[in-house]
Amino acid sequence: MAVIFLTALIVCVIMLAVLQFAFEMDTYVGYFLAVGAGAVAISYVCIKYWTVTGNCSVWRRPSIN
Prior knowledge:
Layout: H1 2-21, H2 28-53
Helix pairs in contact: 1-2
């Protein structure tokens, strides 16, 4: 799933670059939205992976002996 998200993000950024440089459009807001959506998507994939594999010991409260 991470490969799909990253591929979509790269395609989106390339399309924004084409719109900016070939058609001289103002695409700064689009860049911020694309990068923000990519960050949220990759964070979601990482959290889902950590919880499924059980490698989320960072979030567990340490046991008191």
